[in-house]
């Protein structure tokens, strides 16, 4: 279990609160030590994870109104125990974040887990519980579940893709939900994937529009090398290529010039076939042209059905925007009357 340092209840429980602004780059967030977290979130210089939680809770509370249903139906000091219930099979993710939500609403709540982030859960499994004031638990419930369900959906698909892609590594992209960049990318790590760049600041990625504006791939690479040297910056550099001719042009530039280039993206070199299969011959030839001089990344036409074949071409990485932009949430519930919940779940085939 984690602990939170502040003992002052937030605004959605009382009229007093204590705000501590923390960023994910620090070793603790909202009083939680990430040394104790199974899989730590990516480090980001400005992302305020506690702020995202506060925003989600404030969105639900609607200012001073708060949870009018709770106030009308639940005695303020009533205490209950509620259980987390998996309603389908998958990889659980967001346990640490869900606990942060409960403790932000009410630091007196007690949260316990029988599983950790990254573990497999089966439909019908009770994998955690929260005990304390019923009012606080119900207020926190939906926000905690929203984070967990989205993260678990991402982690579940990532795990399947990562296993199928081996020996290549699976990456997500920047196609994340606005405001949830770090949350989505954390879920990818929990699912066994690796993170691509967190934003525009931590890696140079020369894409097709940059190349067009710069007047060609060599000009774009030269401009990046000059800029990094001028600014005394060291970071990974990736360039997008779409044809074998562009790959050869990049390799020729690198053979003639000292460059910071570290990775070549091979974009849309996987061709779909009428029978549902894919032709990876163009991708494989590009990997052979590069011959280990740089890391390689396959992009385009990546699905759970095609990723294994792509992974056998020798590419270092495979990136998939679908990991985060087409999320199917994992069905999870929080129930106080778990016997009734299981009975209803069996009737509807959801538990």
Short description:
The protein is α/β, with parallel strands linked by helices and 351 residues long. It contains twelve helices and 16 strands.
Spatial arrangement of strands, main beta sheet:
8-15-14-11-10-9
Radius of gyration, CA atoms, in whole angstroms: 24 Å
Question: Number of helical segments?
Answer: 12
Helix content: 25-40%
Characterization of the model:
Helix 1 crosses helix 3. Helices cover about 40% and strands about 20% of the residues. It is an alpha/beta fold and about 350 residues long. The model is unreliable at about 1-10 and about 15-30 (pLDDT under 50). The strands form five sheets. The chain has a six-stranded parallel β-sheet with strand order 8-15-14-11-10-9. Strands 5-7-3-16 form a four-stranded antiparallel β-sheet, with helices on one face. Strands 1-2 form a two-stranded antiparallel sheet. Helix 10 links the parallel strand 14 and strand 15. The chain is built from twelve helices and 16 strands. The chain folds into two domains: about 45-155 and about 330-350, Aldehyde Oxidoreductase, domain 3, CATH 3.90.1170.20; about 160-325, TIM Barrel, CATH 3.20.20.70. The two termini are about 25 Å apart. The radius of gyration is 24 Å and the shape is elongated.
Describe how the helices and strands are arranged.
Elements: E1 28-29, E2 32-33, H1 49-61, H2 68-73, E3 79-86, E4 90-91, H3 95-105, E5 110-113, E6 120-121, E7 126-133, H4 134-165, E8 169-171, H5 181-190, E9 204-206, H6 208-214, H7 217-230, E10 237-241, H8 244-256, E11 261-267, E12 271-272, E13 278-279, H9 281-290, E14 295-299, H10 307-311, E15 317-319, H11 322-325, E16 332-335, H12 338-347
Parallel strand pairs: 8-15, 9-10, 10-11, 11-14, 14-15
Antiparallel strand pairs: 1-2, 3-7, 3-16, 4-6, 5-7, 12-13
